[in-house]
Amino acid sequence: MQDIVFILPAGSFPVPAINGGAIESLLELLINENERHQSFNLHVLMCKSTTDHTRYDYTAYHNTKFYDFYLSPRWFKLNRLLNAGNKRLGYHLPLFSPYDRWLKRQIKQINPAYVIFEGSYTIAARAIAQMVGRDHLLYHLHHQMLPKRDFSAMFGHLLCVSEFIKRDWAENFRFRHPVNLLVWANAIATAKFSQAITPTARQNLRTGLGFNNTDFVVLYVGRLVKGKGVAELITAVRQIDNPHVKLLVVGESVFKNSHPTAYTQQLQTLCQTLPDRVKFTGFIDNDQLYQYYALADVHVLPSRWEEAAGLVLLESRCVGTPQILTDSGGAPEFARADAIIVPKATNLVNNLATAINQAFTHRDQLNYTPAPINDANYYWQRFATIINHLTDQRVTQ
Length: 397
Hints:
This protein has 2 domains: 2-187 and 375-396, Glycogen Phosphorylase B (Rossmann fold, 3-Layer(aba) Sandwich), CATH 3.40.50; 190-365, Glycogen Phosphorylase B (Rossmann fold). The protein has 14 helices and 13 strands. It has helices at 22-37, 73-89, 98-110, 124-132, 151-154, 163-172, 190-193, 199-208, 230-239, 262-270, 289-295, 311-319, 348-361, 376-396, and strands spanning 2-7, 40-49, 64-71, 114-118, 137-141, 157-160, 180-183, 216-221, 245-250, 278-282, 298-301, 323-326, 340-342. The strands form 2 sheets. A 7-stranded parallel sheet has the order 3-2-1-4-5-6-7. Strands 10-9-8-11-12-13 form a 6-stranded parallel sheet, sandwiched between helices. The two termini are 21 Å apart.
């Protein structure tokens, strides 16, 4: 049985994903499915803050081992500042830390068949590439990213969460060494989102949030950050001269227990003229999200940036909620076949308002039938296919 290491960047949320997070939820999905198949020994390396006093029970896992490393809050603050600078410059310049030294020691002890960096890579990546070989080092790319020039000297394989990410890299990046581009599309745990909700429970939840039977509830689920287009969605609802069209915003600036930011304060200011038409719930646990998709009349993903993929689209598809989204990156790959897709490059607010009005006008014709999605078994099977294919290539070389 092959040993495979997953390395999470410092500052990630824990796995299992008790605090949310797309990367963390996807990794938990894979781990749980692998526990059922028992085909790989998985090792999850994480870096947490010394202020995290949560004690995690890992005893239920037989084919997964979890490794925790702790750093001071001061280091995490410095790392956030560096990441903010990286985002402005469009580069990835990681900060060296004791975590890197610890990672190298763990890799040497585990001696894995493959090492997978999740969502970001550290300075230790170069040393690890020298230890295991670049053909054994994979990068799981969950977002658009401009890589460092020496990326291909470290990583032999890039796991892309959508066809869009694969095309983006194939068209825009040239490296000294060839990088094998492989699509490993996102998936969700269908059991969480295929749960039935009774008409009475649905009505009670709507009533508790301040919505009545005649309201047309537009739902946003996700982080409250500028690139997600939440301000534009609020402005679009404000532009619609219909008191029955209301907006429900589910999420926080990052994930659970986030602090207010300048952007979330901007959103609150925008809503001052719509006191009865916009409701914020804050963070909702993933296990409870299906109820919010079920109470909504339409789900909107108004992204301004290029979405690598769209977990929330898979979630609302599983529940059966109609969708409106922008033509953002890989998002359309994960949307319902009957979704309304609007351009984001120009007139985004008007485009969203027009689409919402269209959905409201034809609300009796909206399709609330759940659509097929990528589930946990697909996610594990695709992972196993990739690993087995890479292993077969090594054997035949």
